Amino acid sequence: MFTADLLAGQTAIITGGGTGLGLATAQRFASLGANVVLASRTESHLKDGAAAIDAAVPGARVLTVVMDVRKPDDVDRMVADAVTRFGRVDILINNAAGNFVCKAEDLSPNGWNSVINIVLNGSFYCSRAVGRHMIANGHGGAIVSILANYVWTGSAGTIHSAAAKAGVMSMTQTLAVEWARHKIRVNAVAPGPIESPGAAKQLWASEADVARITEMIPLKRWGKPSEVADAVTFLVSPLSSYVTGDVLTIDGAAWLGRGTFGFVS
For the chain, does the N or the C end have fewer beta carbons within 10 angstroms? Predict the structure, then answer.
């Protein structure tokens, strides 16, 4: 169990922070004393997310910023707003994402670019802006990006997302080496199937799909957003002070055990 003051006084930016894994992470950070900056293109998501944090953590310090990670000017404004409100930025969570299932041969250039621009370009723009702030102020910090467990294995229907997130994984490793001298740690988490209404609508169309995927997971269950939030919290906290350039997989061993013989029952 994390101590209640683990992130006291720190400021965390979470892109896509109004819903899903971003909101679960923001709630966890707020419960541990952090100032939280929720960023999203959708104002209603931010309003609902801030209300959910306030209900769960009365008195939490939350700033909402309507912005688009695909636009560098928006990203710079987000960081400036966070610094104006809270004085500094210590943590960045690159969580904003876009995904949908589509055969590669049917994927349009617009569909490809939409996901690449949000996931890969957006993660770079945010990392660059926050990294510049951390370097200029000399206080270091932590960056964690949300990937997916198919960055190593591939997955039919996700060529746009897999390519984008694999790029973010390489960026994570590169920045970990490049920015270590600035005391900036850069890591990632790679969730597998996670219980999330929003993702379910986009990716899994039927109960049969859910049952099939569940059977493929050795732990025989889907993960919870809170479990991803706990892993992210570990990676931004002093508990992982010697960890950088790593990717923590959170999938109940789903990406393992896919050999020729399958599972032994």
Answer: C
Residues 6+ apart with CB under 8 A from 81: 37, 63, 65
Q: Look up the pTM and report it.
A: 0.93
Alpha carbon 239 to chain centroid distance? 19
DSSP lists the bridge partners of residue 30 as none
pLDDT tens-digit readout, 137-185: 999 999 999 999 988 888 888 999 999 999 999 999 999 999 999 999 9
Whole domain around residue 90: which residue ranges? Answer: 11-195+225-248
86, 124, 125, 150: the catalytic one is 150
Closest C-alpha to 189, from 125, 141, 142, 135: 142
Angle at 96 between CA 243 and CA 1, to 5 degrees: 45
Assess contact for 95 and 25: CB atoms under 8 A. yes
- Residue 210: Cβ within 10 Å count: 15
Q: Is residue 164 part of a domain?
A: yes
Would residue 209 count as lying in a domain?
no
- The answer to whether the CB of 181 falls within 8 A of the CB of 170 is no
Cα gap 91→237, rounded to integer Å? 9
- In order of 93, 103, 155, 211, 227, the CA distances from 25 in angstroms are 9, 31, 26, 27, 9
Give me the CATH number covering residue 78.
3.40.50.720
* 3-state secondary structure (DSSP) of residue 232: helix
User: How many separate domains does the chain show?
Assistant: 1
Strands (E), 54-206: 62-66, 91-94, 141-146, 184-191
150 is catalytic: yes
Question: For 71-117, how does the pLDDT look when each residue is reduced to its tens digit (9 = 90+)?
Answer: 999 999 999 999 999 999 999 999 999 888 899 999 999 999 999 99
Closest CA to 147 of 175, 119, 112: 119
